[in-house]
Amino acid sequence: MYTNFFYALRREGVPVSITEWMTLMEALSIGLAESSLSGFYYLARAVLVKSESHFDPYDLAFQKYFQGIENPKQLLEQVSQWLENPLPPKMFSEEERNELLSKLGFPDWESLKTALEERMQKQDGPHHGGNTWIGTGGTSQFGHSGFHPGGVRIGGESYGQSAVKVASERNYRDYRTDKTIGVRQFEVALRRLRQFSTRLDGVKDQLDLDDTIDETCKNAGRLKLVWTRPRKNSVKVIVLMDVGGSMTPYANICSQSFSAVHKSSHFKALKFYYFHNCIYDLLYLDASNNPSKAVKTEDILRSLSSDYKVVLIGDAAMAPSELMMSNGNIFWDLSNEEPGITWLQRISKKFPYNVWLNPLPEKYWEQVHGYQTLKIVRDIFPMFELTLEGLDRAIKKLMVRK
Amino acid sequence: MTNPLHYQGTDDYIVSNDLQNSVNISVALKRPLLIKGEPGTGKTGLAESIARSLGLSLIIWNIKSTTKAQDGLYVYDTVQRLYDSQFGEQNVSNIKQYIKLGKLGEAFESTERVVLLIDEIDKADLEFPNDLLWELDVMNFYIPETGETITTKHRPIVIITSNAEKELPDAFLRRCIFHYIDFPDQTMMKEIVHVHFPDLENQLLTEALKAFYWLRTISGLQKKPSTSELLDWIQALTIGGIEPVKLSQEIPFLGALLKKNQDFDLTLRQLHTRGTENSSRAKRGW
After folding, report:
1. Which sequence spans correspond to the domains of chain B?
2. What is the ipTM of this complex?
3. CA torsion through residues A59, A65, A66, A67, sign
4. Which of A159, A294, A322, B143 could bond A282 through an S-S bridge, CB–CB 3.0 to 4.6 Å?
5. Residue A30: which of B28, B85, B175 has the nearest Cβ?
6. Which CATH class is domain B17-181?
């Protein structure tokens, strides 16, 4: 029953659940696919896919699974001759359909294709109203104006466009979420930090008017005050951003995300610090990395509570010495007693809610210049691509202790 | 079709084949239909069209950021009851008269089948859709104050719209039929405009659409003009008595299409480059 299509979808990353799959089966059994492939395409998409960002993976899976369903030209021509002078379309009642369904079940495409080819070879002329040969108005798997739960419609009425062709156009490519993000999307994604914010901590210091009135009324008019926690966002965020050097090509993305974070000023606290390539004793207050405008990393580790969520943005690609050696700082005039990795480990230990966003696409992480350090950093911080999907996953990660 | 409830669109609402399909699928499967799409693609209009096409009445539940799921079911007006108990002559022992059904409750109570539109569900709290899961699934709810259970007499056709401001919970999505309304292409847009302006000159329409779709191709626009802006603009063009030929050279009343300063600047720059390529197009006004 197309079960492999289910797995094909999941392989492409469409999160299809069993519930939805059963709904699709129910829909097929009441004939909503109108026994055509394009009918099936739209039906399955409406039932199984719940976000336009998954339309493209859906198209891909569909294409792969139903590939080759467009029969070779000559075959089609021959068959369409047999299909001339059809019987009037036969409407099958529900019972008839169900009976057929239980009798025939849903074949898979593989056997259907083989069967079609086989029958093509054996059949010598038109057959109408039967249940085996290619013809019209019957219950054979092949033909049109008839019904078969898993049949191939050949010729006749259709939606005018082949489903596989629709799928192969990939009209929804732009809605994929693994593309790099824009400012607005960044803001929307960051807004999720608010939604996940817990209302469990904080003082009950706000009068809950509705509940007070309710309770007072239930209390026969004697005043009974109800207090509640204010609906404020309790999320506190530290953003640590790599600037300059190998990050220059990503400056644009970073400035976008910077403005996004600035706009979404709904956090309880938002701290912004800069570093260059790796973090050492000092964190800078602006993008110029000027040591006169800097704070001690140690102070930050000490003064900020560990419920701060840390977002690091950087490519984590650097010379191994910058990460592993003391005095490895890329600024010659600045020495550091402890290697950068020690500082990174401290940050990760102090702030258990942390993620590293990397503007480099994930598929290059293994090969990019500086991949050795990238791998080490990845062991310390959970690393995500700086795309909408990556950010999504990162924010989910930020909400749980790793 | 054996199903008597078969939606085919209405004269004043142009519907694509696959949207029509999705509506019929959701009706046949008795699942809510979740509609997403760019602003101005007629998400809300769809419910009105369905109601008209099937001859059913429409109940609209507008969601705001403060809306709670409970509001849709019923509200127990305790204040009125307290007030009545102190000053009124009414008998307050009948709690039933203080229970006011919300929009969802209304849809359940209705003696005829209705279309229920839950508009912009993503505006409410994250938990909101989850709070409605049970009610939308079994189509009944219990009022503890009166011990009553409100059950649907006829399962309403539920249409839910979302602007994708928030992600909806997975459990909720699993129960819905989903449809994403694409931005209409030129041919379809022509039909849509025609519905609103039946007397519009063909030439003006063609030129206007050309300019409109050119505008949408400019990359980097913060807010692309949508259908409703196009309709406003065309109205402005007809009132202003603009000659269709002029539209290939300039875009008058640009403010009807673009709503952001940056977009304005960007477009003017683009118009300029388009103009230098073709020196006769240098003149413009808005």
Report:
1. 17-181, 186-281
2. 0.77
3. positive
4. A294
5. B28
6. alpha beta
